[in-house]
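Reviewer comment 2.1 asked that we show a complete input and output for one of the modelled complexes. We chose the magnesium ion case, as it is the one discussed in the main text.
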Amino acid sequence: MEGVDSNHMYGKELEVGVRVVQMACSLCQKLQKGSVRPSPEQVISKDDDSPVTVADWSVQAMISWMLSESFGRENVSVVAEEDAQTLSYNTSTSLLASVVATVNETLAMSARFGLKGPATPLGGSEVLDAISRCNSTGGPVGRHWVLDPVDGTLGFVRGDQYVVALALIENGQVVVGVLGCPNYSIKKKLVNDSSVLQSDLWQEGCVMYTSKGSGQSWMQQLVQGDGSLEWPNSASIIRVSSIDNPVMATFCEPVEKANSNHSYSAGIAHRVGLRKQPLRVYSMVKYAAIARGDAEIYMKFAKAGYKEKIWDHAAGVVIVEEAGGVVTDAGGRPLDFSKGVYLEGLDRGIVACSGVNLHEKIIGAVYASWDSSDL
Ligand SMILES: Nc1ncnc2c1ncn2[C@@H]1O[C@H](COP(=O)(O)O)[C@@H](OP(=O)(O)O)[C@H]1O
Ligand SMILES: [Mg+2]
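Response of the prediction step:
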């Protein structure tokens, strides 16, 4: 029951990745708990209408700074969701001050997570610089970290599921994946009733991680209260579900209709004989649910023209694969992380399954039904 140690390939990258994601989860929980939960005016709408909060910027700044410290600034290329533009406006002084305070409060706890923080607190320009350094566009050559500081920002704002997702891509392949799931308890299963996800589960979240080729994915508890992170640690190995009968299988999909066509996935579900109601969950927690066997299928069919970004999938895909699952586009081909910020060439949608039998059935149903759909 021991997690990977530093002799393992990508050992240092994985170790630093888990430590910073644990720290980021702690940051998010502090913001989400009680009084400092973002009020509506603290949730800013981006150009694509998706929300961004102090948590998104603070996590990105903190992780960017830590990666630079750990691996050397000149060696670190980060592809991440946020930029520093809004925060740099003259009208954003108080927003920037909140981000700087949050980042410094978190960095001050570095030792508990086995990391070294700055000698003196970071100033505004250092925080802005750490955020804007994450402007790499990735690509087929070299090492690129891929970060979604808060995936499922809507879930975060609503006190529901969200994740901190960090991955490392090397020469176009995802080689390390870390998913911090602050509201996804190690013990409790996901249910459709979001009222069960309220405050009693805070502090019981988990972090999942893997490195490519290890043949295993791990799960550990979030560091609690004033606790500290041990490494190597007592993480548990997680495996996908062994259910391959569609009648018994659970499928999950995005909560938001705008992000995936619910009626098309319902048609696929009917065709392959799935009986259970879909489990609608925000964020990459859907990948986490497949990896640890809480669900068997994840389907996402975005509107034509929407281009999936690598940070919304990289960490989840490698964790599901190493836990024994299969992830492809809806045409059955592997996702291509080598083309830059987007999953270029993605065929119709994304299908993640606990095993090949269910996966073949879903892909077959897509081929059989696509032409008669309005997608
Ligand atoms: N129109 C759209 N279609 C599909 N996915 C979208 C979308 N608009 C945003 N998304 C992505 O869907 C993610 C949320 O996933 P889900 O719907 O599964 O919870 C968002 O991540 P962020 O919350 O990090 O912006 C965003 O990247
Ligand atoms: Mg996202």
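Residues 195-202 have pLDDT under 50 and may be disordered. We note this here for comparison with the apo prediction described in Section 3.2.
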